[in-house]
Amino acid sequence: MSRVAPHLLEEVKLYSNASERNRYDNLADVYAKVVMIEHLEKAFARSAIDPQKYQDECQKLIGQYKISLLSVGGEIGDDPEQFFKQYRVRTTQPLDALHHPFSLLAACQHMTASRIAVKDR
Fold first, then answer.
1. What distance in Å separates the CA atoms of residue 97 and residue 103, rounded to the nearest whole number?
2. What's the Cα-to-Cα distance from 53 to each of 8, 10, 46, rounded to whole Å?
3. HSE toward the beta carbon, residue 88, CA cutoff 13 A
4. Cα 94–99–103 angle (5° rounding)?
5. Maximum CA extent, the chain
6. Residue 41: what are its φ and ψ, rounded to 5°?
7. pTM above 0.85, yes or no
8. What is the pLDDT along the chain (121 residues), one digit of tens a residue?
């Protein structure tokens, strides 16, 4: 069995004070919202979620995402791409809900209205 160099076993600290720890917690919140929106979009693309439920959840998550962005103090701006590049976030698909939230929500509203109109016939 090979031996590991002792310096590789030392603990690496991301922060040295409460302010830095809070910053990393806030960045983790932003990342968590991105991941949740990505999963929601995948579920919607697979028709695993009702359009109305998608719309409600998407609006809620986008609002939480924007609040999370404010908590990082403008460090990453309001552009999701800047966050993705700076922290090397890899998504399996572009997060359209973050770039064009109103166009997706409008599409969902149209789909929901179409379903209601078809049911009423």
1. 8
2. 48, 47, 14
3. 0
4. 105
5. 74
6. -65, -40
7. no
8. 568 888 888 888 888 999 889 988 988 998 898 888 888 888 888 999 988 898 899 889 888 888 888 888 766 666 667 777 777 777 655 566 665 555 555 555 555 555 444 444 4
